[in-house]
Design a protein that fits this description.
Aspartate Aminotransferase, domain 2, alpha/beta, binds pyridoxal-5'-phosphate, Aspartate Aminotransferase, domain 1, disordered C terminus, 338 residues, seven-stranded mixed β-sheet, 38% helix
Length: 338
């Protein structure tokens, strides 16, 4: 089934379906672990002509197992293009370095994953790229922070670690009225819970290490794009201009593991959402718990977004009386039982 047709399936089918391998008809895709591929001047010319995904030369530039994962991500995220990366941080760095140059400016939410915040606040400043941090729930704060050289507005769908839910539509409107690209980290929601590209976001970055892999045994990332602001081949441009130069491709075995994770994403997440709701309920008034951060609780001021993000209740964070806040994954929950 062609990608465009797969995009019309229901989410569960989109996630579960992988077309049989063309050469062998295997229903489980083969893993191509080759670092190098035989090529000649014709193949090289095809690469120069832009046929980049159809021909292979060297693993750092792309590989069929990686393309298989990219296709699966494209389908579940509702994207026009996808670029797989070695990690979630590689997806974020490659996206920002591909979009920005010295002298550019970013507006970013105060709450993002710590390494993202540190990269914006420390590393990118070394290259004369500045960031203003704001509360993206406030349109006034975003508007006040925008400068003539602002090129990107960046936020997380559900922020790590505060679980704050971003109001996507107003952010996109402010950005697009000014020709600014919107980049969103969708890791904590996953495409099962939320697909920001459907709401006008230009680029979604994912740490596939989390819900997409699902078993705490693989690191990987993805950049997904659907944008009227960026050229159609933008991700192919940054594959070659940025990802290949930084050297951060997704390894073939990891691509295969993540592709397999996608096939069970909806069943795992459905259960995770149910469990998170039950846990949030239980811990809300528990004497050993100071605070529960959970996007589904009444106290969450962003509940008004419920209609746009129907199933955002996939994660909870507990702040225990005697320890720092804990992001609850299945392994930690097992620990709590002792
Ligand atoms: C929201 C978010 N984005 C990005 C990352 C980075 O992902 P990775 O560890 O795959 O590089 C993380 C990691 O915890 C994260 O929580």
């Amino acid at each position: 089934m062609k990608i465009e047709k797969r995009k019309n399936l229901r989410f569960d089918s989109k996630a579960a379906y992988v077309p049989p391998d063309e050469a062998t008809k295997a229903v489980t895709p083969p893993i191509v672990i080759a670092s190098s591929f035989q090529y000649d001047s014709d193949i090289f010319q095809r690469i120069l002509d832009g046929e980049r995904k159809d021909v292979n030369i060297y693993g750092r530039c792309g590989n069929p197992s990686e393309y298989q994962f990219e296709d699966q991500m494209m389908v579940i995220e509702g994207a026009d293009a996808c670029l797989a990366t070695a990690s979630g941080m590689a997806a974020i760095s490659i996206t920002l370095l591909g979009l920005l140059k010295s002298g550019d400016h970013i507006v970013c939410d105060w709450t993002t994953y710590s390494s993202t915040h540190e990269m914006l606040d420390h590393r990118l400043t070394d290259y004369n790229i500045e960031t203003t941090f704001v509360d993206t729930a406030s349109s006034a704060e975003i508007e006040a922070a925008i400068r003539p050289n602002t090129k990107v507005i960046y936020f997380e769908t559900i922020a790590n670690p505060s679980m704050k839910v971003a109001p996507i539509a107003p952010i996109v409107k402010i950005a697009h009225d000014r020709g600014i690209v919107v980049v969103c980290d969708n890791t904590f929601a996953s495409p099962y819970v939320m697909r920001p590209l459907d709401f006008g976001v230009d680029i979604v970055v994912e740490s596939a290490t989390k819900f997409i892999g699902g078993h705490s045994d693989v690191i990987g990332g993805a950049i997904c794009m659907k944008s009227d602001l960026l050229p159609d081949d933008f991700l192919e441009q940054i594959r070659w201009n940025t990802m290949v130069k930084l050297g951060a491709p997704l390894a073939p075995f990891n691509a295969w593991m993540l592709g397999r994770g996608i096939q069970t994403l909806s069943v795992r997440l459905e259960r995770a959402c149910r469990s998170a709701a039950a846990l949030a309920d239980y811990f809300e008034n528990h004497p050993s718990v100071k605070q529960v951060w959970y996007p589904g609780l009444e106290v969450c001021s962003l509940l008004k977004l419920k209609t746009a993000m129907k199933r955002l209740r996939c994660l909870i964070i507990l702040s225990l009386a005697a320890s720092p806040p804990v992001l609850v994954g299945s392994e930690q929950l097992l620990k709590f039982r002792h």
